[in-house]
Design goal:
The chain is α/β, with parallel strands linked by helices. It is 40% helix and 23% strand. It is found in: Cytoplasm.
Length: 378
């Protein structure tokens, strides 16, 4: 049994309402979800039979809206995971939830959930209407209070850089949110994704999001306000108080292993079959996922990554966290390194710092994280 960390991601694709900015693999909720749930259990069993046994350090229920699952379903899946893999001490078991599902918080806690990611997006009624959300500010406040009573860790998901939002607006809004002393905040700029309802509205001239310059100012303001409130920006969009960082998300950023089950889930695992690192991608539509699991036992297509692709992925993800990118570790794992000449140029421009072979984005560099990662890739 290896000590290498392993996580489990469970994608529940159903939502009560499809948000106009969302490009995730989501579908309008329906009444009969039992067939999908049983396919999740079967898919998990497939991986348990084929991976070297090691304890799970985290489980994360995402979506979609996994808080539409029943506490009994969540509890059963957690129990199956423990039986098949075992749990590491202090395992993090997280659930993404909408404020309107707060009546189920006690049941989710009893089922084994200890971390809640609460999709409030805003506490302001007008902003929630503009974002197409199905809750209001009062529900956001009420659900945050109930979440803190029921779970060891609570994260607030927020969206800023909304249409018409000014620096003064966001400063007042975020300051009020931070005054409630949240343990963790995930604050994301509104991105207009292709194919979404917001994308179509932009094309028709019905929605005008902030430009890049204001977006950068809003981002910088977010970093400043969170830091002043005692919340460390440990990742580009994530801030926390001591001991409240997301253990599961760190698996992604640090290039660890995780299993992905459910329609639209992704996974990464090392030393599987050929000995190389593999990427697993499940089929998207729930009916197709159920059919594939029924037929083959597994809902994923599995591809072995080339060493170069693995190196590039590790650079793209690892550069996001404040811990930084370990040049020697990437070389040891993949045989590839970053572009050192480009790194020197970026360092002279003040966009990255290199200390003891660790590359970190500077505050200015965080504004261009994806572009810098591309430049550093071999």
């Amino acid at each position: 049994m290896t000590d290498a960390p392993l996580g489990l991601y469970v994608h529940w694709p159903y939502c009560a309402r499809i948000c106009p900015y969302c490009d995730f693999n989501v579908y309008k909720a329906r009444g009969d979800d039992e067939a999908l749930f049983q396919s999740l259990v079967a898919d998990l069993g497939y991986w348990a039979e084929r991976l070297e046994r090691r304890s799970l350090v985290s489980i994360h229920f995402g979506g979609g809206t996994p808080s539409l699952m029943t506490p009994a379903q969540i509890g059963e899946l957690i129990g199956k995971a423990e039986l098949m893999f075992g749990f590491a001490p202090l395992i993090e078991i997280g659930l993404e939830a909408n404020p309107n599902d707060s009546d189920g918080f006690e049941g989710f806690r009893a089922a084994g959930i200890n971390r809640l990611s609460l999709g409030v997006q805003s506490f302001q009624d007008d902003a929630l209407v503009a974002l197409g959300r199905d809750h209001d500010g009062a529900a956001a406040h009420r659900s945050h209070e109930l979440a803190r009573k029921n779970f060891d860790a609570v994260s607030l998901d927020l969206i800023y850089a909304r249409e018409g939002q000014t620096l003064a607006d966001w400063e007042a809004e975020l300051t009020a949110i931070l005054s409630e002393q949240p343990g963790h905040v995930s604050a994301y700029q509104l991105t207009i994704e292709p194919g979404t309802a917001f994308d179509r509205r932009v094309a028709r001239g019905e929605l005008i999001p902030p430009g890049d310059s204001l977006g950068a100012e809003l981002y910088t303001l977010t970093q400043t306000l969170c830091a002043d409130a005692g919340m460390t920006g440990y990742e580009i969009s994530n801030h926390c108080r001591e001991g409240q960082s997301s253990r599961h998300n760190r698996l992604y950023w640090e290039g660890a292993d995780w299993i992905g089950i459910g329609p639209g889930a992704h996974g990464r695992m090392g030393n599987f079959r050929s000995g190389g690192r593999v990427a697993s991608t499940t089929v998207l539509k729930p009916a197709a996922y159920i059919e594939q699991v029924t037929r083959t036992g597994c809902g994923s297509d599995i591809e072995t990554l080339s060493a170069l692709d693995e190196a590039r992925e590790r650079i793209l993800m690892g550069l996001r966290i404040s811990d930084g990118l370990d040049i020697d570790r990437i070389t040891a794992l993949t045989g590839h390194s970053i572009d050192l000449e480009e790194a020197g140029r970026l360092e002279r421009q003040g966009l990255i710092g290199i200390d003891d072979r660790i590359v970190r984005l500077t505050p200015d560099g965080r504004l261009y994280a994806d572009g810098i990662a591309q430049l550093l890739c071999p």
